[in-house]
Amino acid sequence: MEKFELHILGCGSALPTTRHFATSQVVNLREKLFMIDCGEGAQMQLRRSRLKFSRLNHIFISHLHGDHCFGLLGLISTFGLLGRTAELHIHSPKGLEELLAPMLGYFCKTLTYNVVFHEFETKEPMLIYEDRSVKISTIPLQHRIPCCGFLFEEQPLPNHIIREMIDFYQVPVYELNRIKNGADFVTAEGEVIPNHRLTRPSDPPRKYAYCSDTIYRKEIISQIQGVNLLFHEATFAQADLARAKETYHTTAMQAAQIALSANVERLVIGHFSARYEDEQLLLEEASAIFPQTVLAKENLCLPVGQTNC
Known about the structure:
Metallo-beta-lactamase, Chain A
């Protein structure tokens, strides 16, 4: 099975602590790297995760709060120092290019590559990137400023060839791609060999959903239904529900309820408030509702579906 992994680079919230870096993740899908959010220290964590800088071409920023984007300038500068030539694409809500342009003009005058900004709306789900491996769509969230999560959907793989049947019917090599993509085979005698005799279905496409930062929002459930892995912020414990509502964040219990309602395979919670010395409390609250819950931590690698990190 092709690689599909989530690497946690940072899982803290706005206030710095000695326990966590600010929010940042990397999705590795078939050796293509996609960064989600880029808090301070993201490039250091990228090194520690032994991920190749050269394979990172797209960065997705959920919203323009500093703990989700203050690491961008340093990362862009480092790529320049490394002699990068490939374009770097940054996808975000409106405003990021305007904010970064003066700093890039001052600190990164001699970049060896182009930084390309792509803006997206945050009120409705929209497809913002697609290639042969993946489709990436926004998940509208509700925070204090415009904010979106992201849904990564693996593109379907072709059917698997049954070698014994290919040999039995003496299928020419030049027909194999057509057959992998669902075509029947016609022998020299005119007999039609149905595709299901020659192939077996590939594994179902896998999905990863990222939801941070947001107040408890049931509207996302239909969009993330059945994903293999869900990251959902769990900034607060249920005892601090009033604070969660005030700051437009979610409790661990609420994150678990979203996972349960969406029938996801696995939940990882993060974006922890600095007030909790031990996040085990958050894990216990979430696990009581959704047992397949794990705590995010720095340099944790999680498989999406059956991939192994």
